[in-house]
Every structure is written in C-alpha cells, then in structure tokens.
Amino acid sequence: MNRYNRHIILSEIGQEGQDKISKAKVLVIGAGGLGCPVLQYLTAAGVGTIGIIDFDTVELSNLQRQVLFGTSSIGKNKAIAAKERLEDLNTDISIVAYPEILTYQNAIALFNQYDIIVDGSDNFETRYLVNDACIITNKPLVFGAIYKFEGQVSVFNYQNGPSYRCLFPDPPQKDAVPNCSDIGVLGVLPGIIGSMQANEVLKLILDLGNVLSGKLLCYNALTSATSTLKIKPNIITIQKVLDQKDRFNEQQINIGCSNDIHEISIYDIQLEDHFQYIDVRERHEEPKVITLNITSIPLSELEDHIETIDLTKKKLIFCQSGMRSKKALNLLKDLNIDDCYSLIEGATEINNYLKEHHKILSDER
Amino acid sequence: MLITIKYFGQIAEVTQKDEEQIEISEGLISELLSTLNTKYSDLKHKDFQIAQNQELVNLETELTGDEIALLPPFAGG
Predict the structure, then answer these.
(1) Residues of chain A found within 8 Å of residue B34, distances taken between Cβ atoms
(2) How large is the ipTM?
(3) Binding-face residues of B in 7-46 toward A, CB within 8 A
(4) Phi-psi map region of A313: left, alpha, beta (phi>0 left; psi -120 to 50 alpha)
C-alpha cells in the first residue's frame, strides 16, 4: 500500500499532485507552537525537502503545545529534535535542520533554496525580517500568529498580493505586544492555526482551491468565530523594501533582548505619522530640510530649550550624519523624555529621500 | 448612525468586550477613533489597524460602514 494512497485517490490530487508535493521545498521558521503542526503535516504529506530553522532548546513548558517533542527532547535544540521525530514519521523525504538564529545575514541565501516560506516565529523582529526577505527573494510567505485564544493566518507575497507590511507597516514598539511565554496561550490554538498554515502550503504546492492571499483570517478559539479582512497590496511599502535590498544584510536582528537603542531609518517610518522633527545641527548648517515641519534646536542648546519639545508626539531627531542626533537622544533619555528616535540618515540623505517620496506620491496621483 | 465595532486580541482586553454597538454621527474614521480613545483611555497606547466592512481603512476615510474592526498585530508562535 502506498504511503500517500489517501491523497492519490482524491481526484483533485492524484499521482500528479503527489509528485508536486514530493518535489516541493518548504522552509519553516521556528519549530514552536505553530512550527510543530506545520512540520508534522507537511512531513506526513510527503513534502520532498523541509528546512527547519530554530536556535531555541526544548523546555518542559513547551510540551503543552509543541507536539513534536517529548520529555526526552528537553534540553535539545528544537530544529534537531524536530528533525529526529519527523525522520521517524517519514523516511522518504529530506529534512534539513538549521540550529541557528535567522538573521539579516543568512536569510536571503537560505530562502533562495526553498519554494515556500512558513512563518512560525514568536517575535516581531523575526516576522518583519521574514516578510522583507520573502519580498526580496520573491517567495510566498504562509503567515500565522497567535495571541492567547486568537490566531491570524494569511498568505503574503503571493502573485503580486500584499505583504505583511501592507497590513502592519511597521513593527510595534518593543514589548508593546507580549508573546506566549509572557502571557500564556491555549495549547490547542497553535495546533489549529498551524494546521491552517499547512493547508495553505499544500494549496500553494497543488495550485488547488483559493489561496488565502489578500485576506487575513482571524480565529477566536473561545467563540469559534472567524472573520476575514481584505488586505490590498501597498506598492510603495513593497517597493521600499526592494529599494533597501542592498542594505538588507547590514541590519542586525535583536531578538530576546530589549535594548534601548532607538535608531531608525527614514525609509522605515511613515511620514504621515504625527512626529516632531528636531534638527540638532547649528542653525547655519546646510542643507536645510524644507518639506517637513522642523523644530531647530542645536545640540549645544538642547537642555536649555526642552520646553520646545512636544511631549505628546514621537520625536525624530536628525543632524548632518546621525552622530549628534544619537547624542541628543541619550541626553533626552537622561532627562526622562520618552518616545525619541534618532534618524540614521543625515540631512542630505533625508532630502534625497523626501524628493523621491514626493515623486512617488505625485506620480501616483 | 449605529455601527458595530469588533475588538481583537489586546484591544478586546482594553475594551473588556469583543464587540459593541455605538451610535455616532457621520464623519471620518479619525472622529470615531477619538470617541473610542475618550471612552477607553488605554487604547492610545496600542498598535492596531482599522477595518470598515472587512476592508482596511485609514484615519481620513469616511465612516460609511455598519461594521468596524480594530485589529492588533500578534507576535506569538
């Protein structure tokens, strides 16, 4: 009896469909609550090559929901422990474990080796990294995320469809949204959401049914309610990621540790947000940044002009090169003024960006 | 007009409910949001997107819908 008989006898799949499954290469980010069911079903289905990347080790408190692991897995790396279990489940496929952190340095080369990327990570830093790397490598992203009793599922970056950034343009402030380890999660919830992700992967491979692209499915385990929201592609947002392609591997991932460095790039902010832009250069310095409403407070006078800082707004500080703005940031931090960010770019680069940004906007109209 | 507002994740924790109906005069999404910010003061510390009749909208969109949803991002996996 063929292992895949129950697939093959479905007229919608058949031997032809099963061959597609065996040729598919799927990379799963994170072998946790979502990754475990995704991996289990994709392995059972016979996906030919499965990559698993996870740097974390199995803990006792994981076993309530991370169904690939047993008591004997405790202390082992999750990617390796998952591979061991999955190789017993299906001996016909190739499973590659990457017991390491997904970074801006290794993501592109890794994603290029696979057809479909599945996000089962548990932090925003990784989620935005995965999204951007999928845009750059042009891979469909099967997204799943959970919170207590609720889950979200979607397929991003599929056939010119929207990306995660078209839904949530920028990561929330660090620690603004807690994760499962901090607040708890119903054990069966990632089982449901992860199974939905595995289902989307198989639909992508088999070109079957309607892929959950351009839509976000929200599921509530307590009410059993599902809602589906439509998401439109935001060309500017996606293009911004592509424009930053050459600088992608210069970024650093900071998971697990919430440091207080608030440096951001002009390319990563929404100009329409309500910011106070503070120029900390001396008043005679050129070029001026003209298109934005700027508060000018030279670094040397900053402490004497605190009253001009709007405490109700996010403060974006810039200078000629990004150095003085960082000093200003630390100074304001010492004065207990929150919500301050230092722009990585200097005035010239900001002007270049603004010119380009306004050009895109006026071209659109 | 009478609209139904659905709350998800952390937003439902702030409002202490998954759903409610409110009566509001016509206007922009931003006006609805300031009404909600007054009603739920912790809301302004939260990140979320707003959908009207299952489609994402921004603050300048006219309120037309019968159903609004406040949707936060989830990190968990």
Answers:
(1) none
(2) 0.94
(3) 8-10, 18, 45-46
(4) beta
